[in-house]
Design a protein that fits this description.
Strand content: 15-25%
Helix content: 40-55%
Strand order of the largest sheet: 3-2-1-4-5
Distance between the termini: 35 Å
Order of helices and strands: EEEHHEHEHEEEHHHHEHEHH
Radius of gyration: 20 Å
Structural class: alpha/beta
Bound molecules: 5'-O-[(R)-(carboxyoxy)(hydroxy)phosphoryl]adenosine, zinc ion
Oligomer: single chain
């Protein structure tokens, strides 16, 4: 029997301190996430300095807990995979420093992982990849369409030109006085409202797979201000539903068009916004009558976690990619 490969994944790029043990890239033995959402809520968004401090407090506890829950000792771990970037530099450094110290002390291989590769590979914890595939990555920091012909090779065919989808959700939520993070709040509120305001859809040029959400954001601000100036009531549920309809229409149409053009077998959705109920439903309806299979990670693996880093780290491990002790945080690391 082949030896099992156990990778310890570490993730600290934003506001979750996470560690996980993943076996052979697909089997989660433990998945521990310490979220800081409560600390950032009162500021309406992630405060980098506070995030770094929390990571320092949590990182060793979370790693020990991940090993304990996996019922493994350090002898069973083959490599440590850690998010190298992109993300907040002060947050990334905490995970990377812990990973480097442990790799040195315990004589383990070290692997730097791209955060978005992690989000993509969250899907492989549930379903084997079938190439070629298309991944729609929609998170607080990214909105991208990535085409993959094989493991570990990424071709970005579209990206946001301004705000990320999750960022737009969080900003609109703030305007509606909803707590951070706004995505789940708007998602919930939207399901009770109507697309009354028919906000603009940013299709951009005919042949472009890029996205833009800043115009939509301005349209919502104008709508709210105009209503307030005229003394009219703003129907928050309808604003949420109209905003969500605009975002989902564009994400669904562009993903569908790209999937057809590139002739993919699979479409996988990744990142925090992949948790969105409206987006899931709209994509499901669109791909229902096609031969393309559509996959979403379970909700717990949509937002930041370390199992996804362990899963992506396993591919790098198999390819023989290793990082040295000079591994450093790279807030704008490229995937390609
Ligand atoms: O992937 P993630 O945890 O962190 C980044 O790498 O950015 O994504 C967080 C983002 C936040 O902007 C949050 O509002 C959004 O994902 N989000 C949602 C939903 N759940 C989380 N957006 C829309 N609908 C949701 N249900
Ligand atoms: Zn993320």
């Amino acid at each position: 029997m082949n030896k099992q490969i156990n990778i310890l994944g570490i993730e600290s790029s934003c506001d979750e301190t996470a560690a996980s043990v993943v076996q052979n890239g697909t089997n989660i033995l433990s998945n521990v996430v310490a979220t800081q959402i409560e600390s950032h809520k009162r500021f309406g968004g992630v405060v980098p300095e506070i995030a770094s401090r929390h990571h320092v407090e949590q990182i060793t506890i979370v790693i020990e807990e991940a090993l304990k829950q996996a019922k493994l000792t350090w002898d069973d771990i083959d490599a440590i995979a850690v998010t190298e970037g992109p993300g907040l530099v002060g947050s990334l450094i905490v995970g990377i420093s812990a990973a480097k110290a442990l790799a040195f002390a315990k004589h383990k291989q070290l692997i730097g992982v791209h955060h978005i590769a992690g989000h993509i590979y969250a899907n492989r914890l549930q379903e084997e990849f079938e190439f070629p595939l298309l991944s729609l990555i929609v998170s607080g920091g990214h909105t991208e369409l990535v085409y993959m012909k094989e493991h570990g090779k990424y071709e970005r065919i579209g990206q946001t030109r301004d705000d990320a989808a999750g960022e737009a959700y969080d900003k609109i939520a703030r305007m509606l006085d909803l707590p951070y993070p706004g995505g789940p709040q708007i998602d919930q509120l939207a399901s009770t409202g109507e697309d009354e305001y028919r906000l603009p859809r940013a299709w951009l040029e005919e042949d472009s797979y890029d996205f833009s959400f800043s115009g939509l954001k301005s349209a919502v601000i104008n709508l709210i201000h105009n209503k307030q100036q005229r003394g009219e009531e703003v129907n928050a549920a309808n604003v949420a539903a109209s905003f969500q309809a605009s975002v989902i229409d564009v994400l669904t149409e562009k993903t569908y068009k790209a999937a057809e053009e590139y002739g993919v077998k699979q479409v996988i959705v990744a990142g925090g916004v992949a948790a969105n109920k409206g987006l899931r439903q709209s994509l499901q309806e669109k791909f229902n009558d096609t031969n393309i299979s559509l996959h979403f990670p379970p909700l717990s693996l949509c937002t930041d976690n370390a199992a996804m880093i362990g899963a992506a780290g396993f591919i790098a491990y198999q390819e023989g990619r290793r990082s040295g002790m000079d591994l450093n945080a790279n807030p704008s690391l490229e995937l390609y």
